[in-house]
Amino acid sequence: MNRAFNRKKDKSWMHTPEALAKHYIPYNAKFLGNTEVEAPKGTEVVKDAVRKLKFQRHIKKSEGQKIPKVELQISIYGVKILDPKTKDVQHNCQLHRISFCADDKTDKRIFTFICKDSESNKHLCYVFDSEKCAEEITLTIGQAFDLAYKKFLESGGKDVETRKQIGGLQKRIQELETENAELKKQLQELEEQLMIAHVPPAGSVSVKLQSTDVFDMVPFSTVTPLVPSRASNGCPPPPPTSLPPDMSKDLFGAEPFDPFTCGAADFPPDIQSKLDEMQRQRWRGSKWD
Q1: Which of the 8 DSSP states describes residue 264?
Q2: Could you tell me the mean pLDDT of each successive run of 10 residues in the chain, 289 residues long?
Q3: How far apart, in Å, do the first and last CA atoms of the chain sit?
Q4: Is 144 in contact with 20 (CB distance < 8 Å)?
Q5: Which end of the chain, N or C, is less packed with Cβ atoms under 10 Å?
Q6: Beta strands, E only, the chain
Q7: Taking a C-beta distance cutoff of 8 angstroms, is the pair 145, 128 a contact?
């Protein structure tokens, strides 16, 4: 194994600084996978990781599984591993987390690097297979390190800290977007439940209750027919008012006054004589009629 960072003095870099600082260098390779290692660097460490992943890949190949192809994008900010068709980022290995990079001199197709995972803080060894570009890829990663280190010295270390802060903010934004999507989903489910609860069942007729006054009685209306109905408080309605069947008595139960039917002894003689005269006139009038 050769460490890409310890390049020979007579070997020049392959790319312009602007290509790695402002853009990225793409490479196509096959991704054997990654595995956890005990140390962040060392030739024997990566050798064991390569043997382990090659053995796992042989087993998967015998089961009919092909080695997945990936696209590597190398810049002074790190190494991105993408799906070559969809361009979806599978792994984003920031450069300041990469601690070791090497190509295999016994198998010129294999190259690898060790990166510390940002979430678990474990050291993971990534192993790739490239038929023609294994050494070139390790040298490109080495050049990215060299340029990043120069930029670090020029900025007094502020640039690296800024990238760390940006990375943390991007991760927090992603977490908040996921949380927001989950809250929107829960709100939509609650709205659907409320809509279902307010919809009356099929075939049911909604009955509009008649409004009542402050005494829980139906208000009087001259238009409404006087039909006995049960009040909303559950008490039976009062019996309808009707005239007494015996019209020969007044409101107090007494016989109505008729001066012509009164007896002669009921009044003094002067009054009685006047009543008799009025009765005779009444009789004469009825007779002539």
Answers
A1: G
A2: 46 84 94 94 92 92 91 95 94 93 87 92 94 89 91 72 66 79 86 79 56 62 53 57 56 61 59 76 63
A3: 151
A4: yes
A5: C
A6: 2-3, 25-36, 69-75, 78-82, 89-94, 98-103, 110-116, 123-129
A7: no
Neighbours of 33 (CB within 10 A): 18
- DSSP character for 95? G
- Sheet of 78-82, strands arranged across: 2-3, 98-103, 110-116, 123-129, 25-36, 69-75, 78-82, 89-94
Contact 240, 247 (CB under 8 A): no
Output phi, psi for 8, to 5 deg.
-75, 150
Q: Is 288 helix (H, G, I), strand (E, B) or coil?
A: helix
Q: What is the DSSP letter of 128?
A: E
**C-beta separation of 118 from 97 below 8 A:** yes
Q: What is the pTM of this model?
A: 0.53
Q: What pLDDT does 75 receive? A: 94
According to DSSP, the residues that pair with 72 across neighbouring strands are: 27, 81
Token pair of 262, please?
């009164």
Where on the phi/psi map is residue 42: left (φ > 0), alpha (ψ -120 to 50), or beta? left
